[in-house]
Amino acid sequence: MARELRHLDEPEVPSNTTTYFFKEAVRRIWTSKRSSFVAISMITMSLLILASFMLVAENLQQAVLRFQGTSRVNVYFDPDATPEQIAAVERYLGAHADLRSHHFVTRDQALAKFRSYFANVSEVVAQIENNPFPPSFEIDVTPATTQSRNFEHEMAQLRGFAGIEQVQFDWEWLARLRRLVGIINIAGVIAGGILAVAAAFTIANVIRLTMMLYREEINIMRLVGATERIIRGPFVFEGMLQGLIGGGVAVAILYGAFHAARHALAPAHSLLWGFLFTTFLPWQKVVALILGGTFAGWFGSWLSVRERAEES
Amino acid sequence: MIHFYHVTKKFDRYSTALHDVTFHIEKGEFVFLTGASGAGKSTLLKLILRQIVPTEGQIVVNGRNLAAMKNSQLPFFRREIGMVFQDFKLIERMTVFENLSFILTVLNVAPKEHKRKAYSALRAVNLHHKLNSYPLQLSGGEQQRVAVARALINDPLVLIGDEPTGNLDPELSMEMLKIFSEANLRGSTVLLATHDRELIRNSGRRVITLDHGRVTEEKIAAPERAPRPDSLFGIASS
What we know:
The complex is a heterodimer of chains A (312) and B (238).
Chain A: H1 17-31, H2 33-69, E1 72-77, H3 83-95, E2 102-105, H4 107-117, H5 122-126, E3 136-140, H6 143-146, H7 149-159, E4 164-168, H8 171-213, H9 215-223, H10 228-264, H11 269-273, H12 283-305
Antiparallel strand pairs in A: 1-3, 1-4, 2-3
Helix pairs in contact in A: 1-10, 2-8, 2-10, 2-12, 8-10, 8-12, 10-12
Chain B: E1 2-12, E2 15-25, E3 30-34, H1 41-48, E4 56-61, E5 64-65, H2 74-78, E6 81-84, H3 96-106, H4 111-124, H5 140-152, E7 158-162, H6 170-185, E8 189-193, H7 197-200, E9 206-211, E10 214-220, E11 231-232, E12 235-236
Parallel strand pairs in B: 3-8, 3-9, 6-7, 7-8
Antiparallel strand pairs in B: 1-2, 1-4, 4-5, 9-10, 11-12
């Protein structure tokens, strides 16, 4: 029997449409291989650039954290500093809680350390007649201490003590490194963001082109009662899939390049490049990158399908 | 079921496809719409499916005033109508099965049911052996029968055919008419646009005739009697 009349506003959410959307999206990507390749390449390139910046920033950040974890202040005395001057400095250090973790290094201990560090050049070291190393205090400080305003003040006070030649702490270098990490992050977001928007527009155009190719088919679908959701769904999935593939390929390329670079630069690993190739992106950032690609794809396809095509 | 009230459709100032058309088709009726090419048959069918909107007048289908229908309601309304298009409107990149399966997806029929329903619909038009063929691999007549199967797969409230026998030989045309009649017996209201007079003749169905966009005649196609001979036993009648 023919069906009975029912309300046209009855909500109807077909349960099997997700599978249909996915199958159609895969088929359309496969059918329009060239244009899909262009869209996926654009997403891959933009995310690869963004991910590269993120990787460099990540490793610099790790270097900063490692450095901060073992921060040490060296207070060097004049070679002819008196024991009273040294005692005065020791009293000052003892009076400040954040500088309490310190120990004195005599001239002989400094020379012995140098010899142990550079054992491979022992012949040269053996030729040293007069000990050139001054006595010093080594003060271990926490990262929180180095970032406090009070710390700078304490360092300035130490420099003012009689008998002190130099107060050495690489916090300025660390601050510069931190600024560099910030700049790299911002540059990455700007460059990657611009390229991601460009990629989204490329996807939008590819989807628009696909929709034009399927115009007749879309008209037929409308005539047989397909809702806009069913008509547009495969196109939205297509864009999302392109973005997802682009994101995945970008991460895979970066991962391969990261390990290849580590392998190629292995001899110089510990010296120059070591801090740049210590760690790959954490999984959260990898997932974020792939999701970012998927979002760019969704955005591109949404731009194309949001305007309801003219009724046939 | 289908009511036209003083419907006029103008495409531009110089081209009027329908002039003040009024007719009523009741639930369960089987009606032929006939007229020469360009009489306005296809325009009238497009108006029923709300592919186009009238310039003047009102159209009520399945109790719904099409002018008052929201765009979001249109797909659900169209699902109640099985339409056989003159140009078939099959999706060329899909197989026969996929063309039918798509409708079932739209109607939220479980995928495991698709094969059975598609096979059953194709069997009704004697094309069950072409399940995996593409439309372009079929003859015009076969494509037309696939279009009929697609229109019937949902047991529609209203079944509309735009020249559904246009590409068929007389034998297949009668077979197609039988399929439409069976759908009518199952409860579908049927409106067939055709200029095939042989098909209409002897059908005993109501016929609406269009001429230059106007309804010129509404009658029942009664079986014709054999003409009386001029003479009986050679004796001329006076």
